[in-house]
Amino acid sequence: MTSGGGFTFWIGLVLSLTLAAGCSSDPQVRKKKSFDKGSSYFEKGKYSEAAIEFQNALQIDPKFAEAHYQLGRTLLKQADWAHAYQELSTAVQLDPSNLKAQLDLADLFLAGRRYQDAREHAQVVLRGDPQNAQAQIVVSDADAALGDLPKGLAEAQQAVQMDPGRPQSYLNLAKMFERSNDFPAVEQNLLKAVSLDPKSMPALLSLGNFYQRQKRWADAQKQYEAAMALDSQNLVPRVSLANLYSEQGNQAAAEQTIQDAKNALKDNPAGYRVLGDFYLRQGELDKASAEFAALNSQHPKDVAVAKTYAELLVRQNRLDQATIINDAILKNAPSDTDAQILRGEILNLEQKQADAIPVLQSAVKNAPDNAMAHYQLGSAFAGTGNLGQAEAEWRETARLQPAMPDAQRALATVALKKHDPKLLAESGEHLKAIAPMAADGYIYEAEGLFWQGNQSGAEADLRKAIEVAPDNAAGYFQMGNLLAGQKKYDEAEKYFIQALQKDPSSPDALSGLVNANLVRKQSARALKLVQDQIALSPNNTAFYTLLGEVEIRNQDQARAEEAFQKAVALDKNNVAAFLGLSSVQVARGSLDQAIANYQRALQENPRDARLYVAFASLRESRGEWQQAEDLYKKALEIQPDYAVAANNLAYLMLEHDGDAAVALQLAQTARKGSPNVPYSADTLGWAYYRQGTYSAAIELLQEAVKGDSTNALYHYHLGMAYDKAKDTAQARKQFETALQINPNFTHAAEIKQLLAQSKPQKN
Asked: Is residue 445 part of a domain?
């Protein structure tokens, strides 16, 4: 019996150990264990621990939809919006019937101002749960934001009917009434929300915010204090009260309220950061920087503090210190999107755009919906001269963050460089909607409309720009440009003078004023205007550049050179001055000096494609075509779509037996970048001629001749194309015209020989 009982015991023990081992190695068991632990941590508010457990579950089963959803919820609690979006998106892809995930996504899109996306996900929820009031609220908010306020209001009322006991529905309805300027209805609905739940923090704060907007200070303060009493550990009512004091001009009370909040919540990361955040909102960067420097020392493991401190250092142009802090973040988390973006931004500011591109591309790959990653990547591409890629990134930025003014401003700069009036007007229109009290949206749209021939629309925009920003010189300057374009020079001059009064250092305003005088042949007055302004701003490099240009117009090369030399001495990055100086040196035959000047300019400004093109033109004029080719290639490395560089390099290659296919591609790039100039039509036509495509060549060369009928070379090229196409009569006509224009031009002997060969025989 004894031995038998022992045997049975050992069998049971072995079986139980075997089963236990089997359970611990079962992926489904381990997955559930991690998921359950994550859920437990989430319920206790331990979100970092919860995220780790949900990630563990997903390592075992990447298609575990519920784990993606719960991880998304956890990341929302941690305010990690980008990664929360990724997890929630994956959750609904794996399980479209997860209406909670669909609704969380809708809320995220709404917060990110992607209103159409928010609406679509909320509609999915309503199809599965027609009485879901929160989804109805999202639809209401989205429709109102998309411009249909009556529809948004009706949908908000419907949300109340769906769940009349829900305070949030009344809060949303109040918001719709406020957009409709029905303030009694706003207060009525906010009070209803508070009555339904007197302990509702959102209801109390919303009512307080409403009273604050109505400047009912005492009523607002009462609501904020009630909210503080409701939850002494909640920062929001404390910050709201501080903002109320600030709006009343009581900065001391506002700062003391925030200091009290920091003291009361010193163990809460949001609490100890609140004073620094307050200084940031107030625009007190020095105080904010000092506060976050102290916090970074006191809480070295708080990555949020480190990021904010690094960003502050960047805003103060303390890039070396910002790099040290940001690199420490990247060392511990190489794929941290925020840190990657900041690294890219720092490199952009250091003019190291080529180094910034791979860093920012990695950030975009990690977080494809991060608008700032796309924006900085666009800036990096622009810095390397790749305007096409820059435009694509900035368009994506604007799509992801429609209310981001800098994205529209960046697109406007692209439009200006590309001379794209439609894009310029569109960017201005969007910017007006985003920032109606800023002048630049009206100015961009005005310039785009002017280019398109809509002068009345442009003038209306510029008058609005002056109205909203009467102290901004840009509106007056652009109005002057508009009037000058209409040849109303006296009126234009008045606006240029006003622009200079607003901004005495504005080179644009002074340039406009000077040109308005030069076009009326008042060169002496133009010169005096520049000299007078230099007396007011003696260290303005742009003014000396303008002085040099005026002296050239006055045919005083010596004084022009002196002015350009002064401009360069004041600013070694003044490329326009370097170009002007070289032009003067070339004009007086001092080519060696001009070459030395270009070499110095390129040493100081190695990423400016204009210098390479100008230097190449000088080399080309000296017959040094190989050196010219190299310089044009350098320009295109920096700015691949630089039309002049592409055009000139293509022509050199065609004339010196270069690769005809490459030359054709370059000529096409030039034509795309400068579609309305004769030289690009001529070069592309000549490239087709070299390839034997004579019909295409003739069409383009005809366009070149039409654009500039006084250019002997264009007539020669067109004659050659006609000759190959066996149209002898047209060929002779073009050859004869070329000789009439310039009997001694480069190809005159060849033309005479061709004319002799094609001379009609007498019977």
From this structure: no
